[in-house]
């Protein structure tokens, strides 16, 4: 087994990792890539500590390396507070980064002013979790989509046709039924489709979808995911799909990356990650995902005392003072001595090409 970069060095002074497209399909062009991406939010100090105390920061994202390819969905999975949204916001240029590099088609992204941001946003668009909050309640669908087309210089000669095309692309047909509606007159799923249409108004190459279906009724989630898949296939978009739900990653994403407490812990093709998880944290995520087969005679019949030890229960750590070594070690049911002190790099896992885990269990040299 070999080391493939990532996870080197001290968490407090991250060094960018090698921008290796782990788990990627070689011939698809890379649209967006991040190497060693890091974001620390300074913590405001009060009283005397403001003058004398140490500078503290929430180490929300540390040394994240990922690649988005044309026509491919990459899922970013992890529990609440693991840093998923921060990664998306960094990739969208909404936050300045503490460290690391972002490249769009191989060129480093450097957003210094509004004009550069608009040019970047035309190519990399974000979709948020709550379509009701992201659409302005006092404006109609027509207003939202017209504005997007105009901002990105895509209104064209026939605005009405461009608007209808956008609505048709998100399967809101006939378009005239929806175009003059206000957000409150639409269902949650339709609102999210409008938000997606608005993102498409920029004609982007990458879509960063931050939990795009988690606020929707279960019955309509699949429809919206199928729409995103259709856009991936027809428009060859590179899609980052952020979710808590590792089961939906298997269904929808080609590749899955797992994040824990600000760091990537495992990656590979979605089938392998969900069927043969290597990292103890990924196993915990899969064990705790609702699975109808397990509900009968499953967890309910276990001795409650057994569950924590077996499933690595516990709280995610503080990101102001994260655990040394592997950040998962305090919860890990198979933690070894070195996990407490040494940060594991990415190790290849032999079962499938491109499958890796940042876990000392896979250190071939130690076997
Ligand atoms: N603007 C901010 N200022 C300070 N801390 C922040 C800020 N944004 C996020 N954080 C912290 O960074 C960490 C990661 O947050 P983030 O929102 O990226 O997690 P997440 O994985 O998206 O969680 P969720 O699944 O709940 O959306 C959290 O500890 C959060 O409190
Ligand atoms: Mg989030």
Automatic annotation (TrEMBL):
Transmembrane segments: none annotated. One of its GO terms (molecular function) is ATP binding. PROSITE patterns: ABC_TRANSPORTER_1, ABC_TRANSPORTER_2. Residues 1-24, 295-322 are annotated as: Disordered. This is Peptide/nickel transport system ATP-binding protein. The keyword Transport applies. Coiled coil: none annotated. Pfam families: ABC_tran, oligo_HPY. The keyword Nucleotide-binding applies. SMART domains: AAA. InterPro entries: AAA+_ATPase, ABC_transp_ATP-bind, ABC_transporter-like_ATP-bd, ABC_transporter-like_CS, Oligopep_ABC_C, P-loop_NTPase. It comes from Amycolatopsis pretoriensis. One of its GO terms (biological process) is transmembrane transport. Keywords: ATP-binding, Nucleotide-binding, Transport. It comes from the Bacteria. Residues 32-286 form the ABC transporter domain.
């Amino acid at each position: 087994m070999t080391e493939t970069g990532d996870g080197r060095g001290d968490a407090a002074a991250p060094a960018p990792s090698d921008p290796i497209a782990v788990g990627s399909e070689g011939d698809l062009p890379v649209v967006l890539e991040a190497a060693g991406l890091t974001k620390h939010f300074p913590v405001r100090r009060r009283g005397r500590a403001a003058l004398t105390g140490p500078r503290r920061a929430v180490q929300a994202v540390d040394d994240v390396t990922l690649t988005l390819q044309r026509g491919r969905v990459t899922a970013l999975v992890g529990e609440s507070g693991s840093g998923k949204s921060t990664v998306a916001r960094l990739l969208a240029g909404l936050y300045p980064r503490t460290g690391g590099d972002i490249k769009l088609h191989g060129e480093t992204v450097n957003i210094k002013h509004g004009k550069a941001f608009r040019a970047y946003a035309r190519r990399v668009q974000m979709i948020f979790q709550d379509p009701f909050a992201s659409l302005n309640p006092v404006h109609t669908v027509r207003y939202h989509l017209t504005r997007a087309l105009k901002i990105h210089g895509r209104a064209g000669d026939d605005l009405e046709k461009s608007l209808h095309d956008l609505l048709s692309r998100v399967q809101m047909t006939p378009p005239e039924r929806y175009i003059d509606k206000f957000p409150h007159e639409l269902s949650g799923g339709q609102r999210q489709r409008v938000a997606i249409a608005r993102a498409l108004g920029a004609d982007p190459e990458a879509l960063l979808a931050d939990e795009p279906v988690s606020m929707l009724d279960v019955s309509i989630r699949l429809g919206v995911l199928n729409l995103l898949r259709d856009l991936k296939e027809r428009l060859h978009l590179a899609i980052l799909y952020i979710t808590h739900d590792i089961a939906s990653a298997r269904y929808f994403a080609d590749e899955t990356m797992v994040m824990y407490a600000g760091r990537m812990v495992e990656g590979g093709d979605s089938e392998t990650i969900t069927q043969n998880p290597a990292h103890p944290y990924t196993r915990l995520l899969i064990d705790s995902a609702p699975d109808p087969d397990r509900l009968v005679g499953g967890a309910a019949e276990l001795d409650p005392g057994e569950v924590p030890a077996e499933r690595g229960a516990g709280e995610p750590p503080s990101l102001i003072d994260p655990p040394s070594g592997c950040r998962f070690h305090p919860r890990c049911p198979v933690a070894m001595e070195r996990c407490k002190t040494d940060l594991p790099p990415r190790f290849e896992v032999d079962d499938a090409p491109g499958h890796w885990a940042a876990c000392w269990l896979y250190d071939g040299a130690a076997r």
